[in-house]
């Protein structure tokens, strides 16, 4: 007899013989009968063991425990109206058991499969194979599968070729820290695991493939935060001959079709767009969550001649003053509450958090006395201040204002339940700075990567005024997460050389590390550009999760360990010798 | 104006304005006109620059060289009947150029794109991005893309979930040599790159996912041969509750649908099946190419009382005699030719290659005199000997007979042009030995891997008579290549423990290395099994190639190097220090 899947049995199967294979989800003994909820990937069905129908099967059933693997043959029956379970897809039927075989037993589980209570993450990761039996994890990984296929479906239909790039690649000093792989055949030499297939995908364009994609693993040996993993999956895309506009459109269409295919929801195109400068000004963030308001308002104009010196001086000294109007919540914030907010913004460098409340048409609070009627009026007008609004101000250097009020906005949005969790708010952030200044080593770094096309036609500006050069780069943001980033790439050798120079590479260094790319740009490289999306993060948001680890089958902990297999681990000395390596970890231990 | 793809232009587009973007494939100057063959991924179209139509464009065209990237606007014309090129898809049309822009220039290429002559592999790999511009490489990588999608299409339609497993995993001593990745966060510890996702896919089964697949990268740090790469791509499949028969059927259907989708060819199901013992007996190979005959015939019965002592003694001492009838080619093999064949088989350990020719109904050759008429008759009958047949014999230990005649069969099949290259001969080899004896370290190893289910129900046999235990394992063979292998897996803890014991693991070693798997088998592990297919090899055969490197975009050389990016390479000392490592490669150099 062919196997029937538990979750697929319906009233139309009544009176049919079925053969089921699966796990004992639950056993109940009731009035001489035994009920076993049998589970397979498709779902759960109730089976009934009756002494009158089959005494032998009942005796086996008495020995069944949770998570035993069994094969059951039986007949589908319609349940009595009184026992129909409307919460189960198979709730109108049950299977009267003719025979049962125990295929494998199970010890008592350290993780209950049908219990959705929060378990410690350590237990979940140690017994990941059991954690993955739980419905939320099954659902998430199935959604992950469907998301990958939806992406492929769109890209395949649009003439993209899925092509593979090496995992054993060359280490380059730019970007994050590489994972290294010692070579046995080439003593003293190392491969690096790729941080992204960036250069290879550009070379595919030089090869004339025009439209490439790959859903691929990337690696960064960085200190981990909650939303980072040492290995992560990236949807990597590159195209030739397309404008920035066309690449953004293609990306939007792809994401629209993915959300439709996976969630059944409609996303409106085009996505809203903000320049980087606008995003920082209005949201204090380069990845704003637009599912709620609380926008930052630049008050520098209002306060340039303010009676409140702190504000006036901030503006005069090249800083700015911005504010958030926490609309209608003034009565919910005590002085002590506001002290906590002040503490919160101080982490982001803000020297203080000024505040006022609106009472009728007046401002109240410790600093209200500094504002004459006219200025009070301007403040209320600029912030659309109404009674019971709480107004929060930071006066500082522009980046401190953005960082502190941006973080405060996010915090308040969550605290005050202003976020509509059902929304998928996509957004583009464009016109990024090409460089960012690194205070630590006193030089400019590529904000995106060194292959990003500058917006300037005047390449001398790269040297003379780097901080004001914008890039042909664009990030796609979803619900406050950076979902992905892309850019047009430099496709002429001389421009790429000038770029390396601006980043402080000597000619020799540029040639040593990227000589093959520079050479490739001399052989008819087409204009090209692309985007890379964080696949784990996309799945996380689509699944309504907040932790990347819940979207990855076998993730690593914050110390980059796999608690299940105990990786990384010590290896045999001869393995190191074959690689011409010696561990100095023990010396460190002794001295440390 | 929207871009039109060069290769798509047909007579139906005549009189339409088009905008083309692509590469100059070829330029010809003829009677005051300039003809540029313009190429993009879709193909090639001829464009015409005429002084009467547009003098300015013609002047630009004069500067165009091969592989310049250009944008062209023009009008589609029907060619004169006399100039139609039937070898081009666009051969009935040409584009009269209104305007042309040089987008990027190109130096003269070290690899000609339209020249299919064999280049040195070194040049091809160093300039891989140019090698990939060549039509054969474009076609192969497009076929690779289509093969991957065809596999996914079949598996997705059959309820398989594509799920990812880690690349940073745990090193285990079984199997091939691991690539190691030093951990920075965990000093003195190492990850290993996976040789296959074997254990993770089994854990997915323990998790209840029932049907898993992944097209994933695997790694082996072995000394490379022509058909090996340090990283390779595997189609990895695992199922629960299916019998060996069902898994084989599913695999056959998948391969049938892939060949249909990619090549448009019909493959007959079921695939022929041979046991391992039959394959060795009849083809001297565990991956026989059945596109030609030249089967090995076991002559031990015929020769057990032979007048030729060499044969008789071989049989008596536990060896065997087998023969190949090279039908109808006796007159093409001189003594010297046969001496070469003797040399050839000696590499495989054969002490000699006996031979006779059939002349009429008699045997000729140096050993013919040892056979009386009756024995001569038996030989001719057993080998279906007819005039002008060449009969080749090896008498030796069974494994030497198989290895030497198996290799000889392959060599003769190629040499004599007996192989129909258009055929796709799939084949199953089943009933593999569970163990193989390793003479070097004097113990048994798992022939497949330590998780393979033995055919014996009597687990004591694992210890008492390991060499005769067969495995529930099956290989799929295509045209003489091992395309993939699979097995049912052990799903009970006690059996897995006995297996480790038979492989010489102490209890402690088994627990240290595979404790998590043993534990997982105690929590309701379902019966499961699967298969893994070599994706690069499948693509190679489908593309009609004989070198794996021709199917991989950026392959490594035989010394595991990437000639393009120069990986592996030396890294900064501080990178090693962060990993608590010291290279001793230099000391080795000094001493070596």
Automatic annotation (TrEMBL), chains A, B:
Signal peptide: none annotated. L-aspartate binds at residues 174, 220, 448, 489. It is found in: Cytoplasm. GO terms for biological process: aspartyl-tRNA aminoacylation. Its EC number is 6.1.1.12. It is an enzyme of class 6 (ligase). GO terms for cellular component: cytoplasm. ATP binds at residues 220-222, 229, 482, 534-537. It catalyses: tRNA(Asp) + L-aspartate + ATP = L-aspartyl-tRNA(Asp) + AMP + diphosphate. One of its GO terms (molecular function) is catalytic activity, acting on a protein. Belongs to the class-II aminoacyl-tRNA synthetase family. Type 1 subfamily. Homodimer. Catalyzes the attachment of L-aspartate to tRNA(Asp) in a two-step reaction: L-aspartate is first activated by ATP to form Asp-AMP and then transferred to the acceptor end of tRNA(Asp). This is Aspartate--tRNA ligase.
